[in-house]
Amino acid sequence: MRAHPGPRRSFLGIKRIFDVVVSGAALVLLSPALALIAILIRMSSPGPVLFRQKRLGKNASVFTIFKFRTMVVHTAATLTDRITYSTDPRITPLGRFLRDFRLDELPQLFNVVRGEMSIVGPRPLTPDFYPYYSEKDKERLAMRPGITGWQQVNGASNHSWAQRIDLDVWYVRHASLWLDLKIISRTIPVALTREGVYASDGSQLSGVPDALRATLTEGINIER
To answer: Pick from 193, 224, 202: which is nearest to 83 by CA?
Structure first.
């Protein structure tokens, strides 16, 4: 079977210009809010303002993602430790609010400016799961990962791994500036209604390949 050619180079060039202009403007306009959130994080719990983690970027390159810290400082010694759920005791009260409305994702505007991410694209997942990717799974890496995306505005954590991949690959194959604008317009109402932050059982497992899901969730009482 012939591989899908992916997005046109001309579109990717326009998309990059759009990303730089929008993320730069957003950082300027949101700078008071970003500063306030940073102050509140430092006042509410000990630890750094930003959470940094390695993620998979375009063509499986690895980069450091930035988020506002929403949990108490802890060491994620295993992959299981990286799974969060709605009642996770490690999430701070402020962190819960930031997560519910996706405000913890705002520092990724800096990742966009740096060229590691895009405003719209498949969400970046951890490199630990890459060995479990099928050829179709890898197709989601043909574009820069996004702060928001087609999968995020169509259910997010409510999806299985297979559903996430289907939505991400569909986006890569149909990406256009018009589709990006449509996704951005749907992002705000999705964030305000907290749609898809957690699955119906309180989990955030849509980013975990099926081959690992049972192993990683063993012993975790998500509904406690």
So the answer is: 202
